[in-house]
Amino acid sequence: MAEPESPLRLRLDGAALAHNWHALDRMSGAAACGAAVKANGYGLGARDVVARLKTAGCRDFFVATWAEAAEVADLCEGRSLTVFHGVRREDMAIATAGAARPCLNSAEQVMRWREAAGGMCDVMVDTGMNRLGLSVEQVGEGLLDGLRIDTLMSHLACADEPDNPLNDAQHAALASLAGQTGAARMSLSNSAGIALGREYHMDLTRPGISLYGGVQVDSLVPHIRQVAFPEAQVIQRRRVGPGETVGYGGTFRAEKATELAILHLGYADGYLRGFSGQGGASYGGAHCPVVGRVSMDLIAVSVDAAPEVQEGDWLTIDYDLPAASAQSGLSQYELLTTLGRRYQRSWNE
Ligand SMILES: *Cc1c(COP(=O)(O)O)cnc(C)c1O
Questions:
Q1: Which atom of ligand 1 is nearest to the CA of 153?
Q2: Which pLDDT does position 3 carry in this prediction?
């Protein structure tokens, strides 16, 4: 069978991705700027993202699991690739093969790695998020003695709230470990952390969301460009008369005759029901609001502003991440990582 043409495209702007990395690299000052490419490169396609960021100059990549590491390991040869979730017993064979480093998170993981004479690793220190990581005290007690550590890192819980005192407390806790281990580098900041200022940069930053167009703090807005542009095709045009309703539950009732386009896009594609009656699309310069409830595979948009739209035409879905997040109630992270498998992803360069 010939390759079917998808009625749903994800247009990806490679220049914007590279631009965002360069901007974050510049803002990271003397620190190296890495890239979190977990969750399939935040939904965009991990291999494509890694290849492009390598070309841009990125040398440090981060994934969550060993399966994600395996997917990009060949591209990361000669660069650095870290698995955030460390090593379970089940991971030891692949982890000691050396294509990526584990970021050790617990005393159990440290023990396991030490017993296997596992080689270079990273270590996560929990400084207040109470998620993954050793405590500052455990490190102070010498738990890491003798390990070969590339990066000693911690993760900020509230970096998107610049005035939250937890930021300073977390920074101080990690900074107190400087020189206490043999770690070659220290790292604290995700995307929003980079905007907190120079002392947060340490030796290496680890942005994810802002590479892909997400902005959690106002100071990043002027520097970050949208990367992902969903486009959906019109499967049917119709006109509904006054008083008629649209979609499941009949939640939209037309007050006047309304021109509709039915698009191939729904919650199975990650366009979740928070966009019901809230989202929008554009055709030329015309704004086409979503009317009624989002279905699994379909939405209806009003094309009163663009009545020339026909079956087979393509509309660009409004997906500027801060705006789409406000519309839908989804986080910018959810908007990207739920982008479904039915999108045909294509990079413009
Ligand atoms: C996901 C992740 C990042 C990237 O965070 P963003 O907020 O997407 O920039 C950095 N460090 C760790 C440990 C992470 O889990």
A1: 13
A2: 85
Known catalytic residues? 38, 248
156 within ligand 1 shell (Cβ under 6 A): no
Instruction: Verify whether ligand 1 is closer than 6 Å to residue 201 (CB atom).
Output: no
Q: Rounded mean pLDDT of the chain? A: 97
- Cα 332 to ligand 1 centroid, rounded to whole Å: 13
pLDDT digits (tens, 9 = 90+) for 70-82: 999 999 999 999 9
Closest-lying ligand 1 atom to the alpha carbon of residue 210: 9
Global pTM value? 0.97
205 lines ligand 1 (CB under 6 A): no
What are the pLDDT digits (tens) for 277-336? Answer: 999 999 999 999 999 999 999 999 999 999 999 999 999 999 999 999 999 999 999 999
Query: Is 270 a residue whose pLDDT tops 80?
Result: yes
Mutational test site, ligand 1, from 84, 129, 194, max ligand atoms within 8 Å of CB: 84
pLDDT of residue 349: 73
Q: Is the CB of 206 under 6 A from ligand 1?
A: yes
Q: pLDDT tens digit string along 160-196? A: 999 999 999 999 999 999 999 999 999 999 999 999 9
Q: Over the chain, what HEC string results?
A: CCCCCCCEEEEECHHHHHHHHHHHHHHCCCCEECEECHHHHHCCCHHHHHHHHHHHCCCEEEECCHHHHHHHCCCCCCCEEEECCCCCHHHHHHHHCCCCEEEECCHHHHHHHHHCCCCCEEEEEECCCCCCCEEHHHHHCCCCCCCCEEEEECCCCCCCCCCCHHHHHHHHHHHCCCCCCCCCEEECCCHHHHCCCHHHCCCEECCCHHHHCCCCCHHHHHHCCCCEEEEEEEEEEEEECCCCEECHHHCEECCCCEEEEEEECCHHHCCCHHHCCCCEEEECCEEEEEECCCCCCEEEEECCCCCCCCCCCEEEECCCHHHHHHHHCCCHHHHHHCCCCCCEEEECC
